[in-house]
């Protein structure tokens, strides 16, 4: 049988560079291209979208873009979700001890007294407990 493998680069839609529309870039390569291309156009006044760093907009069109940006909803939902998670987490109940500076004698430090017993990092346990947005 004949196996046909389609190259993703031929099916992915090219996106024009914000600095030069004749530069047609694959979307997943745009961030790297912008970094390189921006250096060739130092006098062009552009701003970066706060919702997507690959959205480089002329200063005159920036406000309109910010109201219509397709990534605005994603960012706002992620921010809301993070705030909701923070509300659910219990406050940090660690007690802090005040240290009287006058009690410390200059030149005498005891590094052993600062050791705090902390459980070692367990990546498997960390992944199982992490909440993931799907």
TrEMBL record:
Pfam families: zf-U11-48K. InterPro entries: TRM13/UPF0224_CHHC_Znf_dom (IPR022776), UPF0224_FAM112_RNA_Proc (IPR051591), Znf_C2H2_sf (IPR036236). Keywords: Metal-binding, Zinc, Zinc-finger. Residues 14-41, 46-73 form the CHHC U11-48K-type domain. GO terms for molecular function: zinc ion binding. PROSITE patterns: ZF_CHHC_U11_48K (PS51800). The keyword Zinc-finger applies. This is CHHC U11-48K-type domain-containing protein. It comes from Meganyctiphanes norvegica (Northern krill).
């Amino acid at each position: 049988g004949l196996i046909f493998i389609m190259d993703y680069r031929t099916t992915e839609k090219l996106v024009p560079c914000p600095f030069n529309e004749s530069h047609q870039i694959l979307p997943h390569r745009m961030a790297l291209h912008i970094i390189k291309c921006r250096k060739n156009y130092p006098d062009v006044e552009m701003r970066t979208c706060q919702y997507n760093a690959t959205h480089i907009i002329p200063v005159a069109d920036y406000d309109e873009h910010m109201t219509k940006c397709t990534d605005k909803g994603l960012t706002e939902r992620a921010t809301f979700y993070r705030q909701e998670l923070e509300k659910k987490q219990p406050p940090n109940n660690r007690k802090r001890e005040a240290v009287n500076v006058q009690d410390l004698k200059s030149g005498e430090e005891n590094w052993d007294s600062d050791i705090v017993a902390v459980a070692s990092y367990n990546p498997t346990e960390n992944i199982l407990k992490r909440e993931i947005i799907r």
